[in-house]
């Protein structure tokens, strides 16, 4: 296993192995960082910081998930930390409880392209976009999102619900129809 060997060599202090790991995962991690911070220079900084954090905590990698998944989590956390530092107020815990049941089943019309959805998500306010990206693109559940963002599960659900509604409205406005529970 290529990655396992590189991790072992990196743990022994091999800079060459670290560089190979970096080169193998850099582009994918940069894409993930950019998805959140929406600025290429900032995404590069976030990615660099995430790799530094990963290499300094490499002994904590236990192999229960792939190295890429482990690294991706670090990049997402680093991206969200960057957003917080940029003084974007995610204010996720300051939302009232919804009295309606929130349904997590959400289908889109088949003709709708992922690029259109991503573009529409990027146009949303940051606090909604982050939760939508974590849920829809990264596949995290509400418990995981609440841990990542340090908010309640209810706040995650509420922000997702509001973000989805805003996203639907944005897509309808631009001519794309969305359906709910076909």
From TrEMBL:
<comment type="similarity">
    <text>Belongs to the sigma-70 factor family. ECF subfamily.</text>
</comment>
<dbReference type="InterPro" id="IPR014284">
    <property type="entry name" value="RNA_pol_sigma-70_dom"/>
</dbReference>
<dbReference type="GO" id="GO:0016987">
    <property type="term" value="F:sigma factor activity"/>
</dbReference>
<keyword id="KW-0731">Sigma factor</keyword>
<dbReference type="InterPro" id="IPR007627">
    <property type="entry name" value="RNA_pol_sigma70_r2"/>
</dbReference>
<dbReference type="Pfam" id="PF08281">
    <property type="entry name" value="Sigma70_r4_2"/>
</dbReference>
<dbReference type="InterPro" id="IPR013249">
    <property type="entry name" value="RNA_pol_sigma70_r4_t2"/>
</dbReference>
<dbReference type="InterPro" id="IPR036388">
    <property type="entry name" value="WH-like_DNA-bd_sf"/>
</dbReference>
<feature type="domain" description="RNA polymerase sigma-70 region 2">
    <location>
        <begin position="21"/>
        <end position="87"/>
    </location>
</feature>
<dbReference type="GO" id="GO:0003677">
    <property type="term" value="F:DNA binding"/>
</dbReference>
<feature type="domain" description="RNA polymerase sigma factor 70 region 4 type 2">
    <location>
        <begin position="117"/>
        <end position="166"/>
    </location>
</feature>
<dbReference type="InterPro" id="IPR039425">
    <property type="entry name" value="RNA_pol_sigma-70-like"/>
</dbReference>
<dbReference type="InterPro" id="IPR013325">
    <property type="entry name" value="RNA_pol_sigma_r2"/>
</dbReference>
<keyword id="KW-0804">Transcription</keyword>
<keyword id="KW-0805">Transcription regulation</keyword>
<dbReference type="Pfam" id="PF04542">
    <property type="entry name" value="Sigma70_r2"/>
</dbReference>
<dbReference type="GO" id="GO:0006352">
    <property type="term" value="P:DNA-templated transcription initiation"/>
</dbReference>
<dbReference type="InterPro" id="IPR013324">
    <property type="entry name" value="RNA_pol_sigma_r3/r4-like"/>
</dbReference>
<protein>
    <submittedName>
        <fullName>Sigma-70 family RNA polymerase sigma factor</fullName>
    </submittedName>
</protein>
């Amino acid at each position: 296993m290529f990655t396992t060997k590189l991790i072992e060599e990196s743990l022994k202090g091999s800079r060459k192995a670290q560089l190979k790991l970096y080169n193998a995962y850099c582009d994918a991690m940069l894409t993930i960082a950019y998805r959140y911070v929406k600025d290429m220079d900032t995404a590069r900084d976030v990615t660099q910081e995430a790799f530094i954090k990963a290499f300094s905590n490499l002994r904590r990698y236990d192999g229960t998930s792939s190295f890429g998944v482990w690294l991706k989590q670090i990049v997402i956390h680093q991206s969200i930390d960057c957003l917080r530092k940029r003084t974007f107020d995610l204010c996720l815990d300051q939302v009232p409880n919804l009295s309606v049941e929130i349904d997590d089943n959400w289908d889109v019309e088949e003709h709708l392209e992922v690029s259109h959805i991503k573009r529409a998500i990027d146009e949303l306010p940051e606090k909604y976009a982050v939760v939508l990206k974590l849920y829809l693109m990264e596949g995290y559940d509400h418990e995981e999102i609440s841990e990542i963002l340090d908010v309640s599960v209810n706040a995650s659900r509420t922000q997702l619900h509001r973000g989805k509604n805003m996203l639907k409205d944005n897509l309808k406005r631009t001519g794309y129809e969305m359906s709910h529970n076909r």
